[in-house]
Amino acid sequence: MKVVLFCGGLGMRMRTGTPGDVPKPMQLVGPRPLLWHVMRYYAHFGHTEFILCLGHAPHHITDFFLHYTETHSNDFRLRGGRVELLSNDISDWEITFVDTGADSPIGERLRRVRPYLDGDETFLANYADVLTDAPLPDMIDRFAASDASASMMVVPPTDSFHCIELGPDGRASGITPVTDMPVWINGGYFVLRQEIFDHLPEGGDLVADACVALAKTGGLLTYPYRGYWRPTDTVKERLALDEAYLRGDRPWAVWER
User: Which of 86, 134, 146, 188 could form a disulfide with 75 if both were Cys (CB 3.0 to 4.6 A apart)?
Assistant: First the structure.
């Protein structure tokens, strides 16, 4: 299946305010950007046709792939002054780069790449900044067996906030970590059918418009997952992933197993 990756946002909570700020999916985890890790996840399961929805600072993404260096993440042998790769990452990938606008919402980015889906009935989509080890084939199979127009992976919240139960006099009657609440949040991994475009208005959003509309009619399937899932909305979260990578703790790297 083709994989649509939304990688054109500003990533405001990751920005330092300098002109050289890179798109959030290009923030490094180990020697490679987040975007690469997400793409390797899909490629591991055989999905190697990618459509990148570009927006903010697109040259950071295009330059990375146009000048890709396999030796940064693969073993190699130097013989007679020539590099012999012992393995490679992206030789079988097909990547389509599409400028979907610097300020476009997610739904509009998806609308603008529709022609590049070549009419495929089912395709995958992702925010390109969340890492997981979720079983993608099972996610796809459950969706294929349904009549839903869209599937969204949902996960328990990971924030460290606490929910306070209040009595009528304003006194706290209980405190519960948000992670223990019966709440699910959007995990950022989607399986979609072409009908999704029937619910996407011009300038609309994938979740707030299309998924909300489908949820009201039973057209939205969820894939609850309690396994490994890590967002990178903040610098702290990205640094935690980078540190985990360096110590060899990277459950999302399913291609290493």
Answer: 86
